[in-house]
Amino acid sequence: MSSDISVKVGSVELKSPIILASGTCNFGHELSEYYDLSILGGLSSKGLTIKPRVGNEGVRVAETAAGMLNSVGLQNPGVDYFIEHDLDYMDSLGCGRIINVAGHSFDDYVAMIEKLDPHKDKIDALEINLSCPNVKAGCMSIGSDPEQIKLIVSALRERTDLPLWIKLTPNVTDIKTMALAAQEGGADAVVLINTLLGMAVDIRTRRPVLRNNTGGYSGPAVKPVAIRMVSECYQVLDIPIIGCGGISNYEDVLEFMIAGASAVEIGTASLVHPTCPVDITEDLKKWSEVSGESLSSLTGTLKLW
Ligand code: SIN
Predict the structure, then answer these.
(1) From 95, 132, 233, 244, the catalytic residue
(2) Residue 2 belongs to some domain of the structure
(3) What is the pLDDT of residue 139?
(4) How many whole angstroms from 278 Cα to the centroid of ligand 1?
(5) How far away, in angstroms, is 303 Cα from ligand 1 center?
C-alpha cells in the first residue's frame, strides 16, 4: 500500500499540505536545526515590508488558557535585506517558498511586488497579508474593506504572474465578501484565517497584558472559527483555500480539508512543539496508506446537513 499526501493549490504543486505559517518560522534558519524542512509542503516567510521594522514594544506575546496572543508588529529586516540575505536560503530548503508580503498602503504593496517579482524563479507564491491586526495603518484595515481588497489584488495581478495567495482577517462580519473580492481582483487562492483580535488583562495592574493593548489570538480555540470560514468560502469561491487556525494534529488537517481547504498552515502548534509538523506528516501518510485515499481527494467533501 502506498500513500499520497501531495496537493495542488491552483498551479502550485506541494509534496504535502503542510505549510509553516508566516511569523512562526521566520525564514527557516532556526527550525532547520530541529528537522529537515524539505518534508514540508512549504514555508511562509515572516511578513515583509518595504522598510525594516523593529516591531511593537514588549510585552508582545502572551499565553492564554487555550491559545496565544501576539502583537509582534511585523518585525522584519525589510524586503531588500531579505532578498540579499535570506531568499537564497529559503530557496535551498527544498519545500514550497511562500513569501508573505505586508504593507501599510496601496503603494507599499505595489512596491513590494516590484521588488520581489524579478526573483520569481525562487518564489512559489506571494502570500499577500491583508490581515495583520497589530499595526496602526493598512493591513487589517485594508483587508476589512472589499473594495480595497479588490483594488490592491487587481493592481498586484497586473504586475506579476506569480501566484497571489491573499491572507484574510477573520475580524469581519462576512468573510465571504472579502474572499470574493480577492477572487474578483485576480487572486489565485485565499488563506483563511489570520488571528482574531483579542485582549488579556493583568488583574493586579489592571492593564492589558500586551503593551499594544490588543493582539492577534491563535491556537486550538480558534479552530472552529477557521473551519466555519473555510466551509463558508468553499461554497462560494472558484479559487482554492489554504486553511489556517489552531491545527495541532493530523485530524485537524483532515477536518480543514474536508471543510474545503486544499492545503493548511501550522503556526502556534509549532511554537509549542517545533517538530510537530514531522509527526503530522507521518500521521497523514499513515492515514492515506490505511484509507487508500489520496489526501487531495478530501478537499470539500463535507456533507452539510
Ligand atoms: C505581527 O507581526 O504582528 C503578526 C503578523 C500577522 O498577524 O500577520
Answers:
(1) 132
(2) no
(3) 78
(4) 25
(5) 34
Q: Which residue range forms the structural domain that includes residue 163?
A: 7-298
Whether 132 is catalytic is yes
Quick: pLDDT tens for 207-221. 999 999 999 999 999
- What CATH number corresponds to the domain at position 204? 3.20.20.70
132 lines ligand 1 (CB under 6 A): yes
**Does 264 map to a domain?**
yes
The answer to whether position 102 is within a domain reads yes
- Say if residue 107 is exposed, middle or buried (CB neighbours under 10 Å; 0-12, 13-18, 19+): exposed
- Cβ-count burial of 296 within 10 angstroms (0-12 exposed, 13-18 middle, 19+ buried)? middle
Q: 195 in ligand 1 pocket by Cβ < 6 Å? A: yes
Q: Output the CA 211–ligand 1 centroid distance in Å.
A: 15
**What are the beta bridge partners of residue 70?**
61, 216
Q: Give the count of domains, the chain.
A: 1
Contact yes or no for 213/202 (Cβ under 8 A): no
- Of the pLDDT bands very low, low, confident and very high (cuts 50, 70, 90), residue 140 is confident
